[in-house]
């Protein structure tokens, strides 16, 4: 069966940047599954696959459609149980939700304050208007002012990464010697920033940066194939 | 084989308060293992079991001695594999380390600023002197000044609990429908504060408070048997 992953892009269809799509991209490679990528801008998402979802990633696997990264990971785990596990058992699946919850509430809001204007700038024109309006409404301020003090926000982010740093300083991945979906969850956030924004915030010698490099190198450099924003 | 759990207490041997000992107490109940408790004050720990460890918990299981809560959980999981799992598989074991890392760096430092003077006050005399000296050296200030502004620190703690809150608001435990060692890891911190300090900081309707109540009720109210500090 053919697998299609619908991913979010801006003007350059070769630069998918959604953190949640990156989680699934690595999950598919983890499972050793071939897939084709189909890309869409923000305003094209509601028209994908008959309007099945308001968000990407959407995965089509033969006749099956699944939306949202965690649900897709669970689908892949259940459907392809004989391939390398994304969760390492039921306990790993449950605690991956905690990693997601932490990542969503610690890393993502901070990275948004670094990258949101840069993300706007790489979008196609109809997406730019949609993105600016929806985000400025959510943030209660302009994109420009939302990122204006980003340099001052680096240190608090680096401090908030300590629970992750302490783990990846002593072992290669959150999963241990090898990565699990939990690694891809956190990787997705950093890759989102890397692909969409040239703003640098991770010191090269930070154990988190070294872990991120290990993630970028996985599966023949799947993550590294898209160059960092310049 | 007889199992002994060495736990930390103050003047009242019926009120073990170490977060790490509570993790193991619930882990033993989770596994359905009988055990006896042996108690020690801070300054008695180096003399336990021939000086095998500088920290409690220490577990003796027949001829085997294991120290430190996570190592004990791993030992129990390996030694009693046919009893309910503490990790739910290898992935769960790995990600429990992340939960521990988060709990140690988010919850514990905040709770120490609430409870450290109250902890001092429940200790026996030689322990009080050791505790004050070692902690004041570590904190760089007196115990009294370390907790002086604790009321102002409640709101930042409550905010930092959001990754946990989001999970336990939608399911009973971090482990899902039932608890895993990851739940006991976080429970230990809150139980430490509950047993040692009357300072209230969790609103009763907070999903974290409701989760904590569920943990207190586990195994015939193992955690609730020790009344809250008053």
From TrEMBL, chains A, B:
Keywords: Transferase. InterPro entries: Glutathione-S-Trfase_C_sf (IPR036282), Glutathione_S-Trfase_N (IPR004045), GST_UstS-like_C (IPR054416), Thioredoxin-like_sf (IPR036249). GO terms for molecular function: glutathione transferase activity; maleylacetoacetate isomerase activity. The keyword Hydrolase does not apply. Residues 8-84 form the GST N-terminal domain. One of its GO terms (biological process) is L-phenylalanine catabolic process. The keyword rRNA processing does not apply. SUPFAM superfamilies: GST C-terminal domain-like, Thioredoxin-like. CDD domains: GST_C_etherase_LigE, GST_N_etherase_LigE. It holds the Pfam family GST_C_7. This is Glutathione S-transferase family protein.
